[in-house]
Amino acid sequence: MSAVIKLSSPATREFWEIPVLFEDEHLLALDKPARLLTSPDALDLARPSLMKLLHGGIAAKKPWAAERKLDYLNNANDLDFDVTGVLLLAKNKPAFMALANLFSSEKVRLKYLALVRGELLEKEFEVDAKLAPHPVKPDVMRVDRDNGKQARTRFILLENFSRAGYALLRAEPLAERTHQVRVHASHVDLKIVGDEVYGGKPLWLSRLKKDYRLKPGREERPLLARVTMHAEELSLPHPITGEPVTIKSEWPKDLKVALKFLRQYAA
After folding, report:
1. pTM: predicted TM-score of the whole model, two decimal places
2. 174 and 262: one domain?
3. 81, 105, 129 - which closes a domain
4. Mean pLDDT, the chain, as a whole number?
5. Mean pLDDT of the region 194-204
6. Parent domain of 196
7. What is the CA radius of gyration of the chain?
8. How many beta carbons lie within 10 A of that of residue 24, not counting itself?
9. Is there a single domain that holds both residue 267 and residue 219?
10. Where are the beta strands (DSSP E) in 14-83?
11. Which among 54, 87, 183, 213 could bridge 32 via Cys, Cβ 3.0 to 4.6 Å?
């Protein structure tokens, strides 16, 4: 079967080639790109979303769907618009129901990469803070000790770029809530690069390289302007067989480029 699923949106004239990371008769794991919703936006149904495009491909019997004889796909996890990495889908309803039970029982482990700015006091730490929707800001979460749902995230330092105040972290959420890693990082004054909703700012080469010069008439583009999070690994017992499954995603190109400059000018 094809190792890449090709999708397109005629409305926005966008095209995606989505790598397949894992597949068997029950599961399909895809490598979600940045700047693509996972699920449809209820307030703007015209915006492309991965699930809507996949369902459209199944209905149209696109080659990738026909060769797999697909008539069902449902996502077990949800990645934000800018977040890249492992997205796990069920190819039938029994597998989806079993996956839902696994996720609710905390038997699934998701590991994210996050590039942050801020002062790290420890190489490994946990944030245990209840989360709830913001009372006046739609689609924004906040720490709410009284009315929030329990949420805990473990952070591990992978690389420190102390000269510029940046760090690459691994984040492992337990009982993952909406925006959990993003809010928990911000709660301890670590702002994820590009996450302007929770106080993050883009990463600019001119802020790293002292002798940076831009040619006349040119405008600098940020190295990273999206929420710089990547779901690099998902581990779980198989929902049907019970066998351990680990699915990994290669780091995205824009993050690799940014890390190259951080290592060169800020390590």
Report:
1. 0.95
2. yes
3. 105
4. 95
5. 97
6. 107-267
7. 19
8. 13
9. yes
10. 14-23, 27-32, 74-75
11. 87
The Cα–Cα gap between 264 and 18 comes to 31
Same domain, 100 and 115: no
89 and 144 in a single domain? The answer is no
Selection from 252, 264, 234 nearest residue 193 by Cα: 252
Q: Which amino acid is at 148?
A: G
46 with 66, same domain?
A: yes
Q: How far apart are CA 39 and CA 16, in angstroms?
A: 16
Q: Give the model confidence (pLDDT) of 61-112 as tens digits.
A: 999 999 999 999 999 999 999 999 999 999 999 999 999 999 988 899 999 9
Verify that 98 and 142 share a domain, yes or no. Answer: no
Q: Which two tokens mark 96? A: 């989806």
Residue 176 has pLDDT above 90, yes or no: no
Angle at 151 between CA 148 and CA 153, to 5 degrees: 145
* Mean pLDDT along residues 129-148: 94
Residue 42 has pLDDT above 80, yes or no: no
Here the CATH number for the domain that contains residue 168 is 3.30.2350.10
Q: Which of 77, 105, 133 is the last residue of a domain?
A: 105
Q: What is the mean pLDDT of residues 10-37?
A: 96
266 is written with which tokens? 């800020």
DSSP code, position 105:
T
